[in-house]
């Protein structure tokens, strides 16, 4: 991920359509960033906006959340947009909490829903 900070995109299963819509509608702002995303989310973002620079990591439950957490801790991820589904139980909830904890500890901007992401994205510097 050398050469500037990345924006991390993650979406729980029930929020992947919302993330794809978000990427499509905000492709101009997102195109300023190198994007890292968990596997399936990254695939959906690329389907919606194929011109974006997206690096797909592992799926969240298979370690993708932890990969993004590591990139936060090394300073390579400068912001996180994570569309969380609070109504669906997540077997990897511990990983999700650890990722959010790292975003807080390293004081990076974090949006957890569409409304906040729309307000946050234009204020971020790539």
From TrEMBL:
Active site: 65 (proton donor/acceptor)
Record key words, sorted: Lyase
NCBIfam families associated with the record: MGSA, PRK05234.1
UniProt keyword Lyase, yes or no: yes
HAMAP family given in the database record: Methylglyoxal_synth
Protein name: Methylglyoxal synthase
Pfam families, per database record: MGS
One example GO MF annotation: methylglyoxal synthase activity
Annotated positions binding substrate: 12, 16, 38-41, 59-60, 92
Transmembrane segments: none
Record GO cellular component, one term: cytosol
């Amino acid at each position: 991920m050398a050469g500037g900070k990345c924006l991390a995109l993650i979406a729980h299963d029930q929020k992947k359509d919302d993330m794809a819509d978000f990427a499509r509608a905000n492709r101009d702002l997102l195109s300023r960033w190198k994007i890292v995303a968990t596997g399936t989310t990254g695939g959906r973002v690329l389907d919606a906006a194929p011109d974006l620079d997206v690096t797909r990591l592992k799926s969240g439950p298979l370690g993708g959340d932890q990969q993004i957490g590591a990139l936060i801790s090394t300073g390579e991820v400068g912001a996180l947009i994570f569309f969380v589904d609070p109504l669906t139980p997540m077997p990897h909830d511990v990983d999700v909490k650890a990722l959010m904890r790292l975003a807080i500890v390293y004081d990076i901007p974090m949006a957890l829903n569409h409304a906040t992401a729309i307000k946050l994205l234009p204020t971020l510097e790539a």
